[in-house]
UniProtKB/TrEMBL annotation:
Transmembrane segments: none
InterPro entries: YjdM (IPR004624), YjdM_C (IPR013988), YjdM_N (IPR013987)
Protein name, entry field: Zinc ribbon domain-containing protein YjdM
Xref: SUPFAM superfamilies: Prokaryotic SH3-related domain, Zinc beta-ribbon
Gene3D superfamilies: 2.20.25.10, SH3 Domains
Domain Protein YjdM N-terminal: 4-33
Protein YjdM C-terminal domain location: 47-118
Stated family: Belongs to the YjdM family.
Amino acid sequence: MNETLPPCPECSSAYAYEMGTLLICPECGHEWSPAAAEPVSGEEAVIRDSVGNVLTDGDTVTVVKTLKVKGSPSGIKAGTKVRNIRLIEGGGVDGHDIDCKIDGFGAMQLKSSVVRKA
């Protein structure tokens, strides 16, 4: 067993394990590819959505799960379309790597793990 596995990108758990070509977190159930998580030096980091599609500036995405928003009684519903996204270089704050404007909420940042390319 490889003792140098990276922590879970979702919950930062140190207990990730390998299953085939994927890494799996036993605490939150998140699955990810170790190759996608570590950009090769000299290459630009690629930001992927929840199903693995590559995202680019100006894409339209759909939120895949309902998100709680501080100060809002309803939050952002699953299925909400977000147009003209901008990607944040270097991961942003707390892993939020998408900058966007959502109708009814205004400007905010999202994680690529909660959206799917439309």
